[in-house]
Structures are given as C-alpha cells and as structure tokens.
Amino acid sequence: xxxxxxxxxxxxxxxxxxxxxxxxxxxxxxxxxxxxxxxxxxxxxxxxxxxxxxxxxxxxxxxxxxxxxxxxxxxxxxxxxxxxxxxxxxxxxxxxxxxx
Length: 100
Hints:
Helices cover 67% and strands 0% of the residues. The chain is built from 4 helices and no strands. The chain has helices spanning 4-19, 22-27, 52-65, 69-99. α3 (52-65) crosses α4 (69-99). The chain is extended and about 60 Å long. It starts with a helix and ends with a helix.
C-alpha cells in the first residue's frame, strides 16, 4: 500500500522535475553506459537468406548507430511496413475521392 507521505514525495519530486528546463536536467545528469532497453513483447524467430554483403553492411550501419544488426533489420522492416500501409491508405482515400 502506498502511504500518503510517500505519494506526496512522488508528487513533489514530479513537480520539481516539471519546473526544470532540459538544460538543467542535462546538467544534473550523469551519462549511463549500461542502459538496455527491453522490448518485452514476444517475438517469433524466422529464417531469412541474405547476401553476406547485405549482412556486413547492416552490421556496419548498426555499429554506427550503437545497436545490434538484427535490431536494425527489424527497425527497417517495421519502417517499410509502415510506409506500405500509408501508401495503401492513400490509394484507398484517392479512390474514394474519385468516386465521390
């Protein structure tokens, strides 16, 4: 159970952070190298056959971005699907405008 005093201290801290500018927050922060972002959603493993040159290029790009190459491939797939869906929505909207 959360006590009233504990809740008030959370609210006070929240208000303190809300009053700070981004510059103040950055000045009072220390860099953290060991941060790991975890996506807890379950994933299904699949098999893709890719050219070694494509994998090497992705590994190099991923290294520049500070992420794993499989994560980068996943991000590219997500972005490609997002663009495909937007294109399809625009096509449907265009057909509706022409038929109206």
